[in-house]
Fold this sequence. Notes:
Layout: H1 3-11, H2 18-30, H3 35-48, H4 52-63, E1 77-81, H5 89-99, E2 104-107, H6 118-122, H7 134-144, E3 146-149, H8 156-167, H9 174-188, E4 192-199, H10 208-224, E5 228-235, E6 243-244, H11 246-257, H12 263-279, H13 286-298, H14 301-312, E7 328-333, E8 338-343, H15 345-355, E9 371-374, E10 381-382, E11 387-393, H16 396-406, E12 410-413, E13 423-427
Parallel strand pairs: 1-4, 2-3, 4-5
Antiparallel strand pairs: 5-13, 6-9, 7-11, 8-10, 8-12, 9-11
Amino acid sequence: MDIYDLIKRKRGGGELSGGEWGIVVKGYMSGLVDDGQMGALLMAVYFQGMTDDETAALTDVLVDSGETLTWPDGPYVDKHSTGGVGDTVTLVTVPAVAAAGAKVPKLSGRGLGHTGGTVDKLESIPGFRTDLTVDEFRGAVEEVGCAVAAAVDVAPADHELYALRDVTATVDILPLIVASILSKKLATGAHGLVFDVKYGAGSFSGASEDARELAVGLVEGAKRAERRAAAVLTSMEQPLGRAVGNALEVAEAVECLGGGGSEGLREVASVVGGVMLKVAGLAGDADEGREIIEEKLDDGSAFEKFLAMVGRQGGSADLPAVLPKAAGTHEVPTGTGGYVQKVDAYAVGRSAVLLGAGRRQKDEEIDATVGIEVLKKAGDVVEELEPVFRVHYNLEGRLEQALEVLDGAVEVGPDEPELAEKVLEIVE
């Protein structure tokens, strides 16, 4: 089959069959289809879109490109977040849902752009291993009830396609986003899937309408693959928690797992966890599920499960004391008093990257110790010259870069602001 003809057909608005998508992807993985040809096809998709059947077919091809996991009968449920700032929901929900009786096999990624990655966060715990083999991953899930891993070889074709999309300005195409996310989640083999889809300044979706479209696509795609599924639309207008940075976020997650922590983090984690229990068949509805999660946070069982997971994956259980710390801190004051109107999640996330909490280049080493504490959030009262951020840093040069981006990240006004809901909608 001539790839030229397929590119031309797609460029003209035509549809490719499942078999044709299979030939294209396999050809690309083997080198018979080169970067220029695949990039041209992706750009044709960018302008012409894909039908639901095409999206489903491409998802199946990506799933079949690597190993797929299967699990015995029972409540196996997984979650996915589209990326946020100060978002440690996974670290809270995974052990809390497991404490409630579900099995949670969780494959996670590293930081992307201004958003943090669960794998990077967990690796700030001394000794914690995310590079599990398939057998180690299975064993941890069955023994503890949950595991978070990075190195299980699923959907390798998606990894290659994403790298090409990243350099050809074709990342933000809804059908390709759906196929990419779903391929990894379906390959993991969980019977139920829940998607935490972010919207707002610190998200990749931006407007709530775009986030909802993505949520619907993910849920419909999962159901088409005969998985139970739901999505939760959550706000990322400001950082979710008060900690941004790997070790700092683990410390906040530990606090939340013990019944405390940021109100925003607890609320979203409880809602997402509650939906996971509903999808797993362990709660009659999302509200009942949320009550169960909150109970597991308050009675200490979620924290116990987290410590069991950490220990099973080689990490130190002496948390949070064992977490590494930066050499210095710097407080950023506000210039005026009043009510905090806005905290720009993107600016905070970007500042954390400049400090070293994220990668500016593909192979850059992460600094687990650095980050930002958000001392004041939207709706809080702040006095003139009172600190609104506490920056944890190791290098003066990086601190200066981060402070430049943080300048103007907080807006203060005389009137109490109307706060947006943290959870906008549940899509089922």
